[in-house]
Design brief:
single chain; 3 domains; 6-stranded antiparallel sheet
Amino acid sequence: MRLTISILFLVILLPSMTAGNSGFRQEMIRVALFRGVESVRLDGNGILATDEKGEPLRLSFPLEIAKTRGGISVNETVLRGLKVSAPVFVNVNGKGYRGVIEISAADKGLQVINELPLEDYLVGLINCEISSQWPMEAIKAQAVIARSYAIFQRDARKNAPYHLESTVMDQVYEGCDIEDSRAARGVKETAGEVLTFGGSTIQAFYHSNCGGHTEASENVWGYKLPYLPGVACRYCQNVNSYRWEQRIPLRKVETQLKAAGINISGLRDIRPGSRNKSGRVSELSLFGTRGKVTVSGVALRKALGYSIIKSTNFELRIDDGDVLFSGSGNGHGVGLCQWGAKQRAADGFDYREILSYYYPGTRLTALAVD
């Protein structure tokens, strides 16, 4: 049975998984949960809701929300925007999220943003990016780099509607349903700690498995960061994700290259060219019926799909009209290697040692006290 709830315009303090840590500044973060979706369903207990002007709303839950002319349709009531919160969490499409949920119309569909305390965000993030069953020092290292990355992005995007996406475009975050005590412990024991270089919070990139050597930032994004030079890493080589293979028809490769803006016709051969010091492919030559085109390894991986070509550390050969890729590692390779960090933690290294290895020259710094 749906109940009609009288919504009061109140300011409340949401319970925090990391409440009680008062020795650092409690930061807020804005995360884009969805962009361009056709509809959203909201539900929960004790929900407070206001419109775009902060006026309280009287609504029947659950809410079915879609984009419409002039704004959004909330159970067939047209609004310009909607904000909701609850004492514990709000269910968005069946998943729980702490903090405040904001919904508005975007160019295409709806935009759903979650604003919440950074430390709560991190507790939910741990089991999205790694596993809370990993050694505690690896969990603590993940908490620090995720916090550092979030702070860097918040400052870089301070004038944008949100600071982070909830996908691999930034950091994977799926709410509070997969929080647990080990994730909370890893966040609490590093509360407020970030990595800095030259007094500024670093752009703390990380990835799943480096394949034996992490990558220098300039080889992926074209700009050099002194704390991301690429380092040798033998700790990630005994996991299932280390080696991978893919077979892709040449015709499909050509189609996807064209879709990515790489003009090649009648593709018949691909030959790896130069490699950088980490062993990854820097350039490849594509041979077609109208000549040769040179592309970077990074561009080829992006065109064919990051989940298909798992890294740029690969060999290839042509076989009966197909391209056979054989590679190692998973991800762009820059910064901390998550599987390497896990093994280093299992070998007895603490999170400070793990971080200083993958981000040489950085310092572990506490955020300013309130």
